[in-house]
Design goal:
This protein is mostly helical. 80% of the residues lie in helices and 0% in strands.
Length: 364
Amino acid sequence: MKRFIKKAFKPFWDRKIWLRQITVAAIASAVAWFVGNSLMHNGAVVAAIVCSLTIRISLHKSVREGFGQIVGTAIGAVIALLTVHLFHVGVISIATTMLLCAVIARALRLDEVASINVPVTALIVLGPGVSESTATNRLLSTLIGATVGIIFSYFSHPSTPAGRTIEQVSGLGRKCAKLLSDMSNGLRMDYTQQEAGKWLARGRLLVDLIPSIRSQADEATSYAKWSPLAPLDEAQLLSLRATAMEHTVVQVRGIARALFDASIEGDLPEGIRLEIGDALKAASSAITSKVDLVNEKYQFVDVTIADDLRIQAKTLSNSLLDHNEKISHEQMLRCMTIASNIKIISDSLDESSPALGDIESEGN
């Protein structure tokens, strides 16, 4: 019976963060409905809709989008009332509102979802029966809904933006380590092109996660700039860690691509395969150790991890040169590329590469 209960609740437990978010969103919408209905005449529906559009996974995102919606709909309502007064409700008033909301969303640098929410909430304000009094009523209802959404967003996720950044960096690091370990084991068993194709597919999936981790790191930095609860230096350090992990993922994908290309010719001697496998195993262990040995602020604990991996990469390079006559020139280039990838991973582990800290982002 205990096993049955555990199995039945496992899907819910695995999605506990998602369940928490939708539960908080449902409660927030209900509260917005209640408050809107209590304070405003016919304000419940607008307040609930705007609340559901505003509430996000974090307080920072909800404040950003809630502010954008309030400002956007306020200006949209004023302009629309003017166009309605001049041209009545019709094509011109709606087009003007949509155009202005798009410009405002771009000026406020809102993301794609919020850019859609601004004109949606503006059109709600300017719904049927638009007049100065109804527009004001709906605008105040929008303010109520956005405020409730912002307040409840604090409870949407159990961790802070910095905590979520650490979770994503650590999770992505463990996936990289697992792929490297699997490739190492495959090399010891004389891997096939089909296996190499699966590794390459997994590497591409890891690269697809980079925009998410980058967005989360940017959120942690933005949040720290205005919140006294989050140290800015810690957020900037986390941003550097996220960039380092991004570089690591790219190198892991590069290793998978090199092994796939090498499998097409299929003439790698066993000795070379075993040496590459040992190097990949060392890289996997180094990434795992890096993830395991960090504290809550994601500071380094053991800087020798990267140095040991550099030695492993250099050892592999020297060994490959000794086997230069045993494989084709193309295969040698692929194998040396793997050694170079491992070296770059070591530079990412201790952030010694100028590519991490000396390159400004497009937003700077």
